[in-house]
Design brief:
The structure is a homodimer of 389-residue chains. The first copy, chain A, has 389 residues and is of the alpha/beta class. Helices cover 43% and strands 18% of the residues of chain A. The first copy, chain A, is built from 14 helices and 15 strands. In chain A, the strands form 2 sheets. In chain A, strands 1, 2, 3, 4, 5, 6, 7, 8, 9, 10, 11, 13 and 15 form a 13-stranded mixed beta sheet that branches. In chain A, helix 3 links the parallel strand 7 and strand 8 (110-114). In chain A, helix 2 runs parallel beside helix 3. The longest helix of chain A is centred in the middle third of the chain and has 25 residues, at 211-235. The A-B interface holds A 2, 24-29, 36, 41, 61, 63-64, 67, 70-71, 73-74, 105-106, 170-174, 176-177, 202, 204-207, 209-210, 212, 303-305, 307, 309-310 and B 2, 24-29, 36, 41, 61, 63-64, 67, 70-71, 73-74, 105-106, 170-174, 176-177, 202, 204-207, 209-210, 212, 303-305, 309-310.
Amino acid sequence: MLIELPKHSEVFGSVKIYELQKVLKLESGKVVAPLMRGFSREELREIFSRMAVIIPVKDEKLHLFDGVVRSIPEDCKIIVVSNSRRVEQDTYKIECDLISNFHKVTGQSITIIHQKDPGLSLAFQEVGYDAILDKTGVVRDGKGEGMVVGILLAKILDCDYVGFVDADNYIPCSVNEYVSIYAGVLSLAETPYAMVRLHWRYKPKVMEDRLYFRKWGRVSEITNKYLNMLLSMKTGFETLIVRTGNAGEHAMTLKLAEIMSFSTGFSIEPYELIYILEEFWDGETRFKDALSSGISIYQVETMNPHVHEEKGEEHIKEMLLASLSVIYHSKLAKDDLKEKIFEELKGQEIVKSKREIKKCITMPPICDIDIKKFKDVLERYSETLKTFH
Amino acid sequence: MLIELPKHSEVFGSVKIYELQKVLKLESGKVVAPLMRGFSREELREIFSRMAVIIPVKDEKLHLFDGVVRSIPEDCKIIVVSNSRRVEQDTYKIECDLISNFHKVTGQSITIIHQKDPGLSLAFQEVGYDAILDKTGVVRDGKGEGMVVGILLAKILDCDYVGFVDADNYIPCSVNEYVSIYAGVLSLAETPYAMVRLHWRYKPKVMEDRLYFRKWGRVSEITNKYLNMLLSMKTGFETLIVRTGNAGEHAMTLKLAEIMSFSTGFSIEPYELIYILEEFWDGETRFKDALSSGISIYQVETMNPHVHEEKGEEHIKEMLLASLSVIYHSKLAKDDLKEKIFEELKGQEIVKSKREIKKCITMPPICDIDIKKFKDVLERYSETLKTFH
């Protein structure tokens, strides 16, 4: 893979946000140059072998899920966290069969667990990580919860990197591009605390009529606008650096993942940025090593479009509300910004009053979890965990 | 790449048509098994180095053309045959600059020529290949003509395989899948005269509203139906073996390409099948070596969708008319079949009378061309040919 190196970045305390980098070529030999970097397949394979690709899935079309699984580079460890139905139709079982066959044929390392696994809930209870549990003591529904479970499994598997891939991707080969970008870019980071977020630029006419695409693009633009506004208001200098406020496809080093707080639902990705800025811009953080090493956030423009399952009109409003709420409730947001956000949401007929702009649920960093205890309880009591090596 | 091996094929004289094979994994190690074959990257690279990927282009969106070029595996030789405008806007020049930069950055072997190049026309005149020329002695407009030019350049470059890729592909990484399939499948053929044609199965709801996709899918189904009907009527046994009547993405060994007759416009792909059947089923053919070795036609279902530029409603009718005309006018088509085709076209309000079902223009095999003379004239008189090695 041949990728531009970013020419420009902006610094906010210990946080460095890089401008958008483009992918120049999907495959290439090794190239080391001032303005670009080419990763040979051998280089990427070495990094893949230390990367977990986490696929949260919930009742997605099975052939899409299947295509995504089949497109992960073979040296990566795949971790599927499923919250699919088990009654009426045991979709989870079908996913397991799919994965079992996949492993038989390919030999690739793959793990699957159900988000509602009682052993999993017990493991969280035993290590005192209640923020992920609902009132009944079971892991809550939600993609953020699935991501946290995935990160823990990746930590148990001793991975250095975690990359997230959605299961409803219509373009399996784009997954291959995403994971290659994750590997290449993260391997270049000069800090152990790095994140890469993906973006697709084009809104070609043929796809403009496709609501799903226009929608996501529109929400993304608005989220980016207010994230940049938050930065601009605080520094006094206008910036447009953030282009990946709602980047579903993203990855990070495990060292960063461990000290991240995650939210849930549509606020996940914007909240990651808000959290990092709150901790490491000029906040008081307990993560001194990260503070001194710095947190690097890379943004990469992919060659391939992001084409996900059409989820419906209501979705956009929810997405926008969740994303903007995160910015609204940030410690870093001044009253002017809050007003502007409220006006935006009112104008879009998403809220009528400020009370409707709710704070999101967050889950604390997993670094405090006794990983050995978690692993022991999980392995002993899990009913759904399946590991294929 | 891991691919199913076909379990079933049907034989028509010296022609063997294989049932659809699925791609099981985009990347894999080398796997040799009864039911599947996995090609490692090293294996594929060796085959890529003997393959020319031909990209006919005419005024496509430049960023799409760019994405496609950047996605061809680096060991392949790229041959661009452009019929883009040169006046008002010199699109051809922009394509050349794009390719020149691409080569500077990647070092990949790439050739570009303009279809209307006077030296090219002269070369065809000098070797007596007039069927490709229009009344003014210049290479005719048309994708088929572009393909023939590409095949000749591939022959000059001493390639063993030629693969075709359209320049208006919205999903650059799918091009990588196509070329890998071309390489893998053709390398396994037990005859030197082999072809592989691609197909995408799914018509997911999210894409059903997308006219462009539904259209192409619909035309394909009808073309396949009548091709299968032609086969069924002649053998007395019903068959559904043909699934790739209108496969835009396809490849073949150079040995087969040289003895192929090509038509032009939308009839290209169905005509290839008709021609092969007419020559090698129980026709009198002069190609004795091919007759005894056999012609193998592989059909592969890709993991990635085929998403091309939206070309408009009128297009479908033209496509259907051209495709069905080819079958209609085949020596192999009995009167019953002709009647059915006429009824189909009438029902679709594409024709009112049989006279409107025209025979397509065809160009004879290039094997008779004095390739040395062609090369000499081309190199001496070409004004647009650019080769980057």
